[in-house]
Design brief:
By secondary structure, the protein is α+β, with helices and mostly antiparallel strands. 27% of the residues lie in helices and 29% in strands. The longest helix has 19 residues.
Length: 118
């Protein structure tokens, strides 16, 4: 399943202190989109900076993926994708991600970030 994440304020526009995340399920193929240089997100990473890097790669039409290890890092990675979605909505782009465990025996999660014009 693929999960779409939309970020924004309570009214659905812009970013405020409240972040609204909507998760919907879609069937997708088992094909994994992987970047040669995934961004590493830590529990101490700033989601806004990571979101800016994600938005930059998407605008440049580069493959983009984010890796995270641990609950805080995964939380920051999800926030970053949601914020990047808000940044890219100004360019009429919708962002979603596809999660994968890099190794089934580890807790290292990779989010492949995808985008399309709306």
């Amino acid at each position: 399943y693929q999960r779409r994440v939309h970020g924004g304020g309570p009214d659905g526009t812009g970013l405020n202190s409240v972040l609204r995340v909507t998760v919907e399920k879609y069937k997708v193929s088992s094909y994994r989109i992987h970047s040669d240089h995934p961004m590493k997100v830590a529990g101490s990473s700033d989601p806004k900076l990571t979101a800016g890097a994600i938005a930059h790669n998407v605008r440049d039409r580069k493959d983009c993926s984010v890796t995270a290890l641990g609950a805080d890092a995964v939380n920051n990675a999800l926030k970053a994708v949601a914020i990047a979605g808000s940044y890219l909505s100004q360019d009429s782009l919708e962002v979603w991600f596809q999660p994968f465990y890099v190794d089934p025996d580890s807790n290292l999660l990779e989010l492949s970030v995808l985008a399309s014009y709306v």
